[in-house]
């Protein structure tokens, strides 16, 4: 009887900045899917973001490292930034090269699942991993269920995660408006944002 291969979680995104919603989703996926660990992979150049609105990749990686530093289940990875990768399909291939012998689980919010058909080569993505999806507040459960059916039974797991209605864009707007972000991001991330003067003109 063959032993089950370890499963590695991957959470991608711009992480501009990383926040508690990212950490909650990663924690839930780790617990429910018995993941070895979760890689937080900041995007080198998020394809749906305007260049002028994007914080430098190195700063986003630094914030991500601070966000996960206190949890041994999580680790940041500069893989996309180092290689200039843009598409999730290619990132998954690079992760498989760097961490061989593991089954990959790509972690996302339900908003991303609903947009999966707009991604580059979604079938190529699903050929390299399974999906763990956390419901986002406001997403229609019927539409999410239909998307799960569309992409195939056994390829998508819906996580029964606590819904956290926090987004990076909200945090940037709060900083720009002089509103508090304590408890929405890890304290170390908040300190870096204030020290570097990030998002003041978001």
Q: Can you characterise this structure?
A:
With 202 residues, the protein is α/β, with parallel strands linked by helices. The chain has a single domain (7-196), classed as Rossmann fold (3-Layer(aba) Sandwich). It contains 9 helices and 6 strands; from the N terminus they run βαβαβααβααβαβαα. Strands 3-2-1-4-5-6 form a 6-stranded parallel beta sheet, with helices on both faces. The mean pLDDT is 91.
What would you call the quaternary organization? Answer: single chain
Number of domains: 1
- Please give the largest β-sheet: 6 strands, parallel
Strand order of the largest sheet: 3-2-1-4-5-6
User: What fraction of residues sit in β-strands?
Assistant: 15-25%
Known CATH architecture: 3-Layer(aba) Sandwich
What is the alpha-carbon Rg in Å? 17 Å
Query: Terminal Cα separation, in Å?
Result: 56 Å
Average pLDDT across residues? 91
Low-confidence stretches: none
Number of helices: 9
**Overall geometry:** globular
- In total, the number of strands is 6
SSE topology string: EHEHEHHEHHEHEHH
Q: And the CATH topology? A: Rossmann fold
Structural class: alpha/beta
Q: Considering the protein shown, what is the CATH homologous superfamily?
A: HUPs
Which features characterize this protein?
202 residues; alpha/beta; Rossmann fold; six-stranded parallel sheet; 9 helices; 6 strands; globular
């Amino acid at each position: 009887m063959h032993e089950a291969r370890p499963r590695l979680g991957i959470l991608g995104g711009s992480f501009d900045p990383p926040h508690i919603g990212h950490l909650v989703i990663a924690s839930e996926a780790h617990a429910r899917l018995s993941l070895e660990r979760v890689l937080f992979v900041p995007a080198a150049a998020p394809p749906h973001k305007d260049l002028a609105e994007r914080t430098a990749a190195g700063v986003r990686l630094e914030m991500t490292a601070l966000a996960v530093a206190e949890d041994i289940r999580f680790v940041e990875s500069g893989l996309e930034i180092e290689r200039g990768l843009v598409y999730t399909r290619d990132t998954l291939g690079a992760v498989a090269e760097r961490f061989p012998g593991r089954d990959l689980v790509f972690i996302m919010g339900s908003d991303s699942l609903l947009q999966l058909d707009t991604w580059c080569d979604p079938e190529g993505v699903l050929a390299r991993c399974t999906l763990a999806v956390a419901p986002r507040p406001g997403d229609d459960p019927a539409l999410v269920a239909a998307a799960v059916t569309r992409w195939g039974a056994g390829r998508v797991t819906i996580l029964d995660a606590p819904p956290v209605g926090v987004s990076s864009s909200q945090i940037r707007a709060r900083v720009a408006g002089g509103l508090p972000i304590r408890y929405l991001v890890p304290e170390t991330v908040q300190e870096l944002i204030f020290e570097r003067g990030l998002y003041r003109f978001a």
